[in-house]
Amino acid sequence: CNANEDCYPQEETLIAEHLDLNYSEFAALLIACFVAFCCIVALSLYLFSKRKNQGNALTLSAGRRLEEDDKYALSRIGNESVYSYFVTDKVFGWIAALITLGIQFGIFVFFINAAEANLQDNRTDIQFTWKCPRDSDVCKNTADLNKYGWAIFSMLMIANLAKDMISGTKLIYHSSKVRHPLGSRIRYFIGGTLLCSITLFALYVSTVYNVAIATSNTDVIVNSVIVLFVMDVDEWIFSTL
Q: Which of 60, 190, 191, 211 makes a 20 to 30 Å CA pair with 46?
C-alpha cells in the first residue's frame, strides 16, 4: 500500500504461477515456439507439394506464373509496408525492414516491462486499485473494468490484427510451393513468419499490459490503440523511403 491507502495485491501472474516465468521470458518462449511451428508446417507442406508434383515439368506457362507469385507475395505482406522488402532481393530494403522490426519489438518490450508486477521497479505501470482504509479490515477494488471492455478489446484486436496474421499465414503456405526457386521460398517464408510473429507479439503485449494496468473500459481501449499505433510504424517508414 502507498501513503494514500491505495493497495495492490501481491499475487503471482498466471504465467508465473504455472510456468515460473515472467512476461518477458514467456514472450521469448512464445515467439521461439511459434517460429519453430512455422518451420515445421512450411517443411511439411513443401514435402507434400514436392511429392504431389514429382515428375511434373515446369512448363512455360508455369514459368510465367513465377512473376505472378512475386506480385501475390507483395500483395500479402502489403505494398505500402516496409516489410514488402522481405520478399525482394534488395539489400537496402532488407536492412530497413529489419531495423523497423527491431524498433517495433523494442517498443513492445517497454510495455512488457511496464506490465511486470514488481512494485520495486520504477518502470512498472501497475495501478493501485484496492482501497484499504487503516480503520477498516475490508479492502475495496475500485477498478470498473468489465466484460464489455474486454469485448471491445477483442473486436479491436481482431479488426486490426487478423488481416496481418492471415496474410502472413498465406505467405508461409505460398513459400512451400515447389515451383518457386529456393531463394524465393526462403524470402516468402521469412516475410510470412516475421509478419505473423510481430502480429502475435502485438496481441500478447496488448493483452498482458491491459490485464496488468487497465482499470476501466476506456483504459483498455486507449492501451489497445497505442499498441496498434506501433503496428503502423512499418507503413510510416516505407512512406519516407
A: 60
